[in-house]
Amino acid sequence: MGSNPTKVADGEVPDEKLAGTLSENRNIYKMLDMHGGGVLIKLARQCKEFGCYDMLDAYLDQEVRKFMYNAGKGKLMPIAELVKARNQERNAKLGAFSRKKGKGKSGPNILDEFDQEQAEMAGDLKKALKLLDGGGKGGKSESKYREMVWNLDDRGSMGEHVLAICLLQGTALHNIIAKRLIHFFPKLINDICTSEDYYGLSPLHMAIVNQDAQFTSILLRLGADLNQRCYGAFFCAEDQKASRTDSLEHEFVELTKNTNYTGSMYFGEYPLSFAVCTGHHDLFRMLLAKKANLNAQDTNGNTALHLCVIHDKMDMLDAVLDAGGNPRLANKQNLTALTLAARLAKKTV
Length: 349
Description:
The chain is mainly alpha-helical. The protein is 41% helix and 2% strand.
């Protein structure tokens, strides 16, 4: 990871959001805070000086483990519960006349009958759920369950866990902690942020926003999810934010089709489109080498080519076309990348 804090945590996040995060007195910030302090930083500094990381490893194994479901093995949770919490957080920020209740029905939680602490049962349960809901990947039906690792009640105000804080900070000491964290708790690499503003943001998204090729490579090698989508309001087009509506029947956020994709942080949800929007060719090639779907469409129906047009990334547009991007795919406005360029008056396309 780079030596500078990520764009998400530094210059491009509104000051009031960071202020809210920093003012929170939560247990997670006693381990790692947004000021570059915390117990883990002190231990990492001491261990680095001594050239021995036994103290840090012991703290991770004995103390940090307590904040995770099933000691780091994770726990399957209904998507409907996560969406309800997201909806409540959004409505808490809105006036009474702007609030929207989550639509649809969540259905019964079949996980209530299972003890997920039994490892052998957990494996069989995941396989059964994947068959029932189609796995939620590759354009199939949306998964109704998600595996969460860090306890929801012990997260930061962005819905983040300690690995996410390491990536948000990005210093050398945070890098040391991050690598040891994923050694002890490999499932953290796919544990997402859960707040309204950052819902779905994964460690892979963060490494890409940081333009950190080294840590992106580590995450990909360990099995980071290429199909994880970031639905957070921070990464939503400005002229769509007021339309954000939840349904208990799926994880994505419903948005108005009436948009010109205003703002600078609409990155298209997928890790590959994040790489395109940040203009990092090496990361783009790394994701393609892992078989990332070049023509995946986000909630707006936009592909990587559409995102190149929206963000005026002409060099990336050439790279996407050369790699096999389909210029005929239309978004939910029935616009291809070329016709979208005409509508948005992008004369350089």
